[in-house]
TrEMBL record:
Residues 3-459 form the Aldehyde dehydrogenase domain. InterPro entries: Ald_DH/histidinol_DH, Ald_DH_C, Ald_DH_CS_CYS, Ald_DH_N, Aldehyde_DH_dom, ALDH_GabD1-like, GABD/Sad-like. CDD domains: ALDH_SSADH1_GabD1. Signal peptide: none annotated. The keyword Kinase does not apply. Keywords: NADP, Oxidoreductase. This is NADP-dependent succinic semialdehyde dehydrogenase. It holds the Pfam family Aldedh. Belongs to the aldehyde dehydrogenase family.
């Protein structure tokens, strides 16, 4: 795939970029490793100062970088501005909390004594150079939620971004440079996917994180396994949105529309399968379908647009194939199901609701990456859980019920990395994020995320131990 900015609202290629050569890649890995040797020795105060500056710069750049994101991948301008603001929030959160999240941990005194030590503790030390392979759908947020904790932990980063968001990728490198990070602490690599394996196999690279497709995750995990390197994977999702009989149906239906079409429907944690109790199915289906019909599809730069184009022509074709397969197998199209008329030659698709989904339909098991919703009718919690879990994915889940017994059951039985009641899934810097099954492994955000790329080190002192050297990264 060419490294280029192609406006998905028009199909026009605006700018192309040359991929780095082998010598340039080698030089940048060298820089990252040299920067790590110094950055790992800095104290948390200095790291927080640098990340705080980056947050301030991003806040000032918010409108400009939002326009760049919208131009490159088609999210609405309002969504792009919100994404930039969320990144600022996460940077400031990690600048405030990283030191406490990575503070030395003290084992129970009885265990210290039983081990024969006079003193023992656990220290979180950085791993080194971390390669980040990131997707186009949240081109700023996906990177920042890796970069902020990784840099605060003392690591350095190499970014291989999606080939259709090169200007956003270059902006991120420039952002950290302007904030005062030393050369090599965070670098963007304009490369194709074929170059990733060689970089990950390089001994100077310690670990990798990937957000993207299941095939991409398998490829990275395979190389990392062969080289025995730590990875975090956040892959696809086909999240259930369960509505039980006790739910507030008007609120559930209204939220369902946002949950499905956020980011033009191109979000791993967007609700995709709507599993509704038979007692409230008809009311929910009518309200939800009416809400999807009312959305405005069009120019993502326009203030009244709710849904912009899909990011690529291939993405739209893939979505159309899923819808046509379902239609051919007997699904009912309650709304949408086609390309909208009267729009420019971009990659637009109407918000769509499908009912009567059955297991032989591809959309029952595959992720629909666009504004297409699948409706299921169920008789109660047991069937709802069975349908919700009948997917290879397990990223997050949404459940609408006011019944506490049902809530406990869904927490116990849903196979997902998150269970959100009476609302919709949304990531937050203070809460761990990630999935199970084929949605990947490891966690991003919160304390769990910052510790993923740390060397969790046991420090043990016998009776001849030295004086306490102090705690934290500044004492490394």
């Amino acid at each position: 795939m060419a490294i280029a900015t192609v406006n998905p609202a028009t199909g026009e290629t605006l700018k192309t970029f040359d991929a780095l050569g082998d010598a340039e890649i080698d030089e940048r890995i060298d820089r990252a490793r040299a920067a790590y040797a110094k950055h790992r020795l800095t104290g948390f105060d200095r790291r927080a100062e640098l990340l705080g500056r980056a947050a301030d710069l991003l806040e000032a750049d918010r409108d400009d970088i939002a326009r760049t994101m919208t131009t490159e991948m088609g999210k609405t301008l309002a969504a792009a501005r919100a994404e930039a603001a969320k990144c600022v929030k996460a940077m400031r959160w990690y600048a405030r909390h990283a030191e406490s999240l990575l503070a030395d941990e003290q084992p129970a005194r009885a265990d210290v004594e039983d081990s024969g030590a006079v003193r023992a503790y656990v220290r979180y030390r950085p791993l080194g150079v971390v390669l980040a392979v990131m997707p186009w759908n949240f081109p700023l947020w996906q990177v920042v939620r890796f970069a902020a904790p990784a840099l605060m932990a003392g690591n350095t980063g190499l970014l291989k971004h999606a080939s259709n968001v090169p200007q956003t990728a270059l902006y991120l490198e420039d952002l950290f440079r302007r904030a005062g990070y030393p050369e090599g602490c965070f670098q963007t690599l304009l490369i194709g996917s074929g170059a990733v394996e060689g970089i990950l196999r390089d001994d100077r690279v310690a670990a990798a994180t990937l957000t993207g497709s299941e095939p991409a995750g398998r490829a990275v995990a395979s190389v990392a396994g062969d080289t025995v390197k730590k990875t975090v994977l956040e892959l696809g999702g086909s999240d259930p949105y369960v509505v039980m009989a006790s739910a507030d149906i008007p609120a559930a239906a209204k939220t369902a529309v946002t949950a499905r079409v956020q980011n033009n429907g191109q979000s791993c944690i967007a609700a995709k399968r709507f599993i509704v109790h038979t007692d409230v199915y008809d009311e929910f289906a009518e309200r939800f379908t009416d809400g999807m019909k009312a959305l405005t599809v069009g120019d993502p730069m326009a203030g009244d647009t709710d849904v912009g184009p899909l990011s690529s022509e291939q993405g739209r074709s893939d979505l159309e194939e899923l819808v046509e397969d379902a239609r051919g197998c007997g699904a009912t199209v309650l709304c949408g199901g086609r390309r909208p008329e009267g729009l420019p030659d971009g990659w637009f698709y109407e918000p769509t609701v499908l009912a009567g989904i059955t297991p032989e339909m591809r959309i029952h098991h595959e992720e629909a990456f666009g504004p297409v919703a699948s409706l299921y009718r169920v008789s109660g919690p047991e069937q709802a859980v069975n349908v919700a879990n009948d997917t290879p994915f397990g990223l997050s889940s949404n459940v609408w019920t006011r019944d506490e017994a049902e809530q406990r059951r869904f927490v116990r039985d849903l196979e997902a990395g998150g269970v959100y009641f009476n609302g919709m899934t949304a990531s937050h810097p203070g809460m761990p994020f990630g999935g199970t099954k084929r949605s990947g492994y490891g966690r991003e955000l919160a304390g769990h995320g910052i510790r993923e790329f740390c060397n969790i080190t046991t420090v043990w002192h016998g009776s001849q131990g030295q004086a306490d050297p102090g705690t934290g990264a500044a004492a490394e």
